[in-house]
Design a protein that fits this description.
alpha/beta; seven-stranded mixed beta sheet; five-stranded mixed beta sheet; 8 helices; 28 strands; 18% helix; binds adenosine monophosphate; binds magnesium ion
């Protein structure tokens, strides 16, 4: 009778709230060390040094318009056009009272000039159309001294602290770094995340269809989430539900900052991820008071030659795996990356469907959030089974029914974690 049944070892399963589980996990992680990277590879990473400018930007006074560089005081009479300067040139002539230099946007202001008059405020067009002398130019309006001149250091001053250590690099900061001339910059390095899927039933996308098996989706949703949140996924494949396979595969996950496994952490006959993890490390098995994603494993894998690696064992059901990733793995990655905000941005939305909580667990219901008359509304994506991955694919939020509330009724406000909003929003 028992030949198929794995010896059921019993692991003390602590019942934990989501907050307790998260706190215990975060406690394990530290900010990773900094490294120098080409600026374009640092999008979303945290700056590991203060950036101080060693130059003025702009480096010299230059023109904000295409027009004429002049002295504001001397525009009553027509000015002699004595030269031309475009962006990237150095002016070869100086402006004196009664003279003008034709100047293009971004070109350095010639010595002596204090203002720029745009073409449209001069008689240049009329002169050209009526075949007049183009060596002279008249200004049609009064010119304020300094107008259309961008002074040196207007954006950034030499010696100025431009970007603080701890800043998350967005395209705008990367632009600023480029404008300061930095090709490389010091950032907290990206965590390497080893990803291991487990199960005899799994085959890889691309394998020929077999109705008795299922394609490995967890390996891919988790790897994609790792990329999305700034980590470097290292997929180590599929371990089968036997000790040899699992031990061999676990070894491949040891050169990483965290190993994430999926499945095999509940109480089925073949759930031997538990046994293997237990015999190779200090691993806790938790029942987290949440739905989906109740079973969760967390701890460190020890190996005599390598440094211990934290392991997060996600549940196998595809929705559970990714919801648990969002709640527990994402914050761990962020902490390693030097970020200080870990929580998903949340909003309050009016529920259009009820959310039931039958067993004192916090429910994360997959919803579609829409704004109607300036108020957010959330409706379920359909059946909420943790095996139904399209319930996640169709969602843009996770609406929460608290563990101590048996129901969130339609019409009530619920807190909703927005799946696609960046953490920096709130
Ligand atoms: P388990 O925890 O091993 O009992 O797995 C729970 C459920 O998740 C089972 O229906 C598995 O077939 C499914 N499952 C496990 N791993 C994966 C995976 N990598 N991709 C998709 N489904 C999975
Ligand atoms: Mg399994």
């Amino acid at each position: 009778l028992n030949q198929y049944s794995h010896s059921h070892r019993h692991y003390g399963e602590a019942m934990l709230t989501v907050e307790d589980a998260l706190a215990r996990i975060l406690n394990f992680f530290h900010v990773l060390e900094p490294e120098c990277k080409p600026i374009l590879e640092t999008l979303g990473q945290v700056l590991a040094e203060d950036v101080v400018s060693v130059q003025d930007i702009p480096s010299m006074a230059n023109s904000a318009m295409d027009g004429y560089a002049i002295q504001a005081e001397s525009v009553k009479a027509a000015s002699h056009v004595i030269g031309y300067v475009s962006a990237g040139d150095s002016p070869k002539v100086n402006v004196s009272p009664g003279t003008a230099v034709r100047i293009m946007t971004g070109a350095p202001l010639p010595m002596g000039a204090d203002s720029v008059v745009p073409f449209e405020d001069t008689d240049e067009l009329i002169r050209r159309e009526t075949n007049q002398d183009m060596s002279k130019i008249s200004v049609k309006l009064k010119v304020d001294r300094g107008s259309d001149v961008r002074p040196a250091g207007q954006d950034i001053k030499n010696g100025q602290l431009v970007l603080k250590k701890g800043t998350i690099l967005r395209p705008y900061e990367i632009g600023v770094l480029a404008s300061l001339g930095h090709a490389q910059i010091k950032v907290i390095r990206r965590p390497i995340v080893a990803i291991l899927s487990t199960g005899n039933e799994l085959m890889e996308p691309g394998d020929p269809y077999d109705s008795s098996k299922i394609y490995n989706s967890n390996g891919f949703s988790v790897a994609a989430a790792v990329i999305r949140y700034g980590g470097l996924p290292k997929s180590i494949g599929i371990a089968r539900d036997n000790l040899d396979s699992m031990e061999a595969m676990l070894c491949k996950g040891l050169e990483s900052d965290i190993l994430i496994t999926s499945a095999g952490v509940s109480n089925g006959d073949y759930d031997m991820v538990k046994d293997v993890l237990s015999s190779h490390g200090n691993i806790d098995f938790w029942s987290v008071k949440m739905r989906p994603a109740k079973p969760l494993a967390f701890g460190v894998l020890r190996n005599h030659c390598e440094t211990p690696v934290p392991v997060l064992g996600l549940p196998g059901n595809p929705v559970s795996a990714i919801v648990a990733f969002e709640q527990f793995a994402r914050p761990a990655l962020f902490k390693m990356m030097g970020k200080t905000k870990y929580s998903k941005p949340t909003i309050r939305a009016i529920l259009e469907d009820p959310i039931y909580n039958t067993d004192n667990r916090r429910v994360y219901a997959r919803v579609i959030v829409e704004k109607k008359n300036e108020v957010y509304h959330a409706r379920l994506t359909g059946h909420q089974g943790s095996n139904l991955l399209t319930s996640m694919a169709n969602a843009n939020g996770l609406a929460i029914c608290p563990e101590d509330q048996p129901i969130k009724k339609a019409g009530e406000f619920a807190e909703v974690q927005m799946l696609d909003w960046p953490e920096e929003v709130f």
